Amino acid sequence: MQIWVDADACPKVIKEILFRAAMRTKTLIILVANQFLPTPSSPFITKMQVSAGFDVADNHIVQAMQVGDLVITADIPLAAAVIEQGGLALNPRGELYTQENIKQRLSMRNFNDELRGLGMITGGPVKFSQRDIQAFANCLDKFLNSR
After folding, report:
1. pLDDT tens digit string along 114-141?
2. CB atoms < 10 A from the CB of 114, how many?
3. Which residues pair with 4 in a beta bridge?
4. What is the pTM of this model?
5. Cβ neighbours for 62, distance < 8 A, ≥ 6 positions apart
6. Burial class for 34, CB neighbours closer than 10 Å (0-12, 13-18, 19+)
7. Phi, psi dihedral angles at 41 (to 5 degrees)
8. DSSP class per residue in the chain
9. For position 116, what pLDDT does the model report?
10. pLDDT tens for each residue of 13-68
11. Res 70 pLDDT > 70
12. C-alpha triplet 100, 121, 91: angle, nearest 5°
C-alpha cells in the first residue's frame, strides 16, 4: 500500500503530517505535482514532477496507483476516479471519500460549479482550520493502524 498525494494544492501542514507518518510507519508516500516540491530526505518519500496542464497530475495518479492505495486530494473528480479504480481517497480536511458518499459529493461539487458560473457563489472554500488538521491526522492514523 502506498499513499499518493495530489500535492499542488495540498496544504503544507498536511504534507508535514504525511512526512512524519511515512517515516514512523515506513509507508511509501509519493507526491505528484507540476511544480518543484521541497521534501525531507527519506527512502519513504518520493516526489514526481509532471508537466503543467489541466489534470496532468490527477491522470498520473490514477494511472499509477494500485488497488488499495490511499490518495490524498481535495479534488472530488480525482477522488471519484480513485474509488472507481479500487483505491481510497482522503480529503486534507479529514473526510474519507467512499463508494457510499462520492456520488453525492460529485453532484454537490458540480452544482456549486454551476452556481459559481452564474455568479451566485463568489467565495472560495472555508479557511483551513486546526480542527481540519486534527481530523486529517486522526483519519490518517486510523487508516495506517488498520492495515
Report:
1. 776 777 766 667 788 999 999 999 999 9
2. 11
3. 30, 71
4. 0.87
5. 78, 81, 82, 85
6. middle
7. -80, 120
8. --EEEETTSS-HHHHHHHHHHHHHHT--EEEEESS-------TTEEEEEPPSSTTHHHHHHHHH--TT-EEE-S-HHHHHHHHHTT-EEE-TTSPEE-TTTHHHHHHHHHHHHHHHHTTS----SPPP-HHHHHHHHHHHHHHHHH-
9. 67
10. 999 999 999 999 999 999 999 999 999 999 999 999 999 988 899 999 999 999 99
11. yes
12. 35
> What pLDDT sits at residue 108?
79
Q: Return the C-alpha cell found at 80.
A: 471519484
Q: What are phi and psi of 97, to 5 degrees?
A: -80, 140
**Residue keyed to cell 530526505:** 41
